[in-house]
Amino acid sequence: MSDHPSSVISARVRHVEALLESRGLLEDGEIDGRIDEFLAGGSPANGARIAARAWVDPGFAERLLADANGAIRELGFSMAGGLQEQRLKVVANTAEEHNVVVCTLCSCYPIALLGPSPGWYKSEAYRSRVVRDPRGVLREFGLELPERTRISVWDASAESRYMVVPRRPEGTEGLSEEQLAGLVTRKGLIGTAAV
Amino acid sequence: MSRINDVGGMAGFPAIVEEPDEPPFHADWEAHVFALNGALIRRGVYNLDEFRDAIERMPAEEYLAASYYERWFAAITTLLVEKGVAVPEELDLPDERDRPHG
């Protein structure tokens, strides 16, 4: 399959689209509309806002860890925008425990909060290895954790998605919530970076 | 029996490669495959579990050789045939129609 040049698969996709349009299963412009909608949707900025709120508001942090689907609604986010509502569990890193998310079976990911997933998240390399040797994999990402830090790996599924709240960096007491959100990266929210 | 997609803990895969400034889709056709799948699910041609299953029952060698959205497209065409929307020959490009179907 990968030996098909990109132009061949591109032509095959167009051909199938045309066939479905002729059978009334696709409307004119429907595909472009869906692509635009997807690209304008989720972004890691959403997850970063949630993490920053959790850092500045202990009550929110508590609600977030207890019932993430309910808590993110306070910020206007929802896990119900896709094909079916997904259960969200948010886990917070501490000095004792680091969390990292994977989908070993495919590519389940909280797209509403993080946007499209990176290629490495969907790769067999990441999916196979992070559950067997999380410390080694995190080291490859440049994240060296102390031996005493426990690592929990969360395996997402069709019904359940996970997001990590990184540890708030030291020396950030004077920053606004918005500035704090600006520190949080996509990898921090997956758990393959410190923040 | 576990399927080829169930790679958790499996040994033998290479180092993880990060792509700097990676775009959501690497080609237009990938975006089209993504949108096509959503359209067919919303229209009830098949459901999300059937789609996932169609990827996961790909023969191991095809699964491993395919890119992420090549797998999606393979699953879509499998389901279009199984659901009676099209016969296999209709899904091929006109100049591919003499190749055998496995």
Automatic annotation (TrEMBL), chain A:
SUPFAM superfamilies: Nitrile hydratase alpha chain (SSF56209)
Keywords: Metal-binding
A Pfam family hit: NHase_alpha
Record carries keyword Metal-binding: yes
Superkingdom in the source lineage: Bacteria
Domain Nitrile hydratase alpha/Thiocyanate hydrolase gamma: 9-193
GO molecular function: catalytic activity; transition metal ion binding
UniProt cross-references to InterPro entries, sorted A to Z: CN_Hdrase_a/SCN_Hdrase_g_sf, CN_Hdrtase_a/SCN_Hdrlase_g
Protein name: Nitrile hydratase
TrEMBL record, chain B:
Tree of life domain: Bacteria
InterPro entries attached to this UniProt entry: CN_hydtase_beta-like_N, CN_hydtase_beta_C, Elect_transpt_acc-like_dom_sf
Chain ranges of the Nitrile hydratase beta subunit-like N-terminal domain: 1-93
Pfam families on file: NHase_beta_N (PF21006)
Protein name as annotated: Nitrile hydratase beta subunit
Taxonomic lineage from the root: Bacteria, Bacillati, Actinomycetota, Actinomycetes, Geodermatophilales
